[in-house]
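Contributing new complexes? Match this layout with heme C.
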Amino acid sequence: MKYWGILILLSAHIAMAQTVVPLFRDNSLTTYVTMPFRLKAANGSAIPILSIEVLSSKDHCQAMIDPMISANFLVKCTKTDSLRIAVYYKNSDGSVSRINYGPVTVAKISASEEVLTPVVDNSQKYKAGKDLFASTCMGCHQSPQDKPNRSVSQIKSAIAGITRMKSIKLTDTQVKSISDYLNNLD
Ligand code: HEC
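Output block (do not edit by hand):
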């Protein structure tokens, strides 16, 4: 009879088991790809992470808790590795537990998948020119796509030469920012 207690304890423990689940694409771990993981309870709910620690080669794998979702953590490796990670979380009674993830193999990124350089957000860089184009030019030219890649001198000679544009008053800096914008349309 006394074994029942142990069995119940054991099954309660299993029912509460926490797991680390990879959240990306085909679950293959590759270098140079930021790989998101989630700490989950057996019932599927996400568990906030207290801290994480890379146990394998720390110098080429980095891990951080996702700043947006506290149950997720992100790992990026620059070299192939056998990744092991310790994840710490708080139990409902306030005690801290640790779960180990791995070892899992981080493979080399395949040659066909180039490492993408981050897309540069030009929306702020050319905002002055964009705003000027909207306020000064769009009354007649419906879209910046009607006048792409126009240089400063093309705009200046249009203002000087085209009757309908003669009333436009812009400083050199303003013409330059419109031209920069027209030369950097998405
Ligand atoms: C009052 C109307 C009007 C406004 C405002 C106006 N344009 Fe024009 N623009 C014209 C007309 C008309 C032409 C000649 C027909 C054409 O090319 O679209 C022209 C021609 C041009 C040309 C020479 C032709 C070409 O395609 O290279 C450029 C460059 C130009 N506009 C740029 C601008 C820019 C930049 C602004 C804002 C600073 C502006 N325009 C504002 C009416 C206007």
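Reviewers usually confirm one structural detail per submission. For this one: The chain has two domains: 2-106, 127-182.
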